[in-house]
Amino acid sequence: LHPIDIKESQSFAPKLALEKRVQRLLECGGFPESYLNPGDAKRLLIDRLAYVLREDLRDIHDTSHIRGMEILIDLLRERVGKGLNYANLAQDIGVSPPTVKQWLSVLERLYIIFVIKPYSRNIAEAIRREPRAYFFDCSASTLDDASRLENLVACSLLKYCDLQRDASGQELELRYFRDKQGHEVDFVITENRKAITAIEVKTADAKLHPGLRYFVEKFKPKTALQLVLELKQAKRLNGIAIEPLGQWLEKEL
Predict the structure, then answer these.
(1) pLDDT tens-digit readout, 67-117
(2) How far is 33 from 4, CA to CA, in rounded Å?
(3) Cβ atoms of 190 and 198 closer than 8 Å
(4) Residue 178 CB neighbour total at 10 angstroms
(5) Which contacts qualify for 55-63: CB closer than 8 Å, 24 or more apart?
(6) Which stretches of 179-234 are assigned E, i.e. beta strand?
(7) Calpha distance 138→141 (Å, rounded)
(8) How many CB atoms lie within 10 A of CB 51?
């Protein structure tokens, strides 16, 4: 089960306007208890992370590393949507890079985080590049509002990909794009390793993101979108749709 997304939030808070439901997800996350009790959301997040590490961890991993994994979670909360450099994380914690990689795998198995791999036509090249981590609780980021918004969209897109895979057998994967020249797109949905949808997330900038334009010209996905949280009117530039973020996620996913 995935956390509450924008579309599902209407069932939990039918009297709230779309904008307020989006804001509540950003502030409280999509776990039902937190979403329905906004005043307790921060405490519930801390309690949930502590419980998972001190109780669920015992079933799958050595509990002597709890403190190190707590530090890793704190570091990841500061780096939501950023490349995961195992050597840098290891140096900050005081362990080896293989240990960090193993701990990240454990956090994935505990459904604290999910990892998005880079998109590339060259499989070997994609494997060598850094993945990015997001939290299943989209309010977990301590970086800034933009990172929580990106995390919210990541949760919604992952949920969509998983649903399509389970319901219709589509081989969808959620990826991101960044090349050596610095061109970057927040999310790429692939089907059978071919890019079919490219999505860039913005809080307020309605100008067309150059990385998205570059990706469309090079890879020619079926759909390209720039989702903007604060956008008065949808428009289309160079064949790329610029859409209000909340409305699109509620109607299309």
Answers:
(1) 999 999 999 999 999 999 999 999 999 999 999 999 999 999 999 999 999
(2) 11
(3) no
(4) 18
(5) 56/110, 57/106, 57/110, 60/106, 60/109, 60/110, 61/106
(6) 184-191, 194-202, 223-228
(7) 7
(8) 11
Distances from the Cα of 41 to the Cαs of 28, 37, 44, 195, 236, in angstroms?
5, 6, 5, 36, 37
- As given in the structure block, the two tokens for residue 205 are 């900038």
Six-digit token string for 113: 């985080």
Distance set, CA 94 to CA 54, 73, 213, 220 (Å): 21, 14, 41, 43
User: pLDDT for 158-183, tens place per residue?
Assistant: 999 999 999 999 999 999 999 999 99
What kind and span of H or E run contains 244? Answer: strand 240-244
Give the separation between CA 4 and CA 47, rounded to whole angstroms: 19
Adjacent-strand bridge partners of 187:
199
Main-chain phi, psi angles of 176, to 5 degrees = -130, 170
Q: Which residue has the tokens 């469309």?
A: 216
* Strand pairing category for 194-202 and 223-228: parallel
**Strand ranges in 102-182 using DSSP code E only, listed in sequence order:** 113-118, 132-135, 172-178
Which pTM was predicted? 0.95
Helix orientation angle between 66-77 and 86-93, rounded to the nearest 10 degrees: 130
Distances (CA, A) of 150 to 102, 146, 182, 201: 25, 6, 19, 6
Amino acid at 219: F
In whole angstroms, what is the distance from residue 159 CA to residue 138 CA? Answer: 13
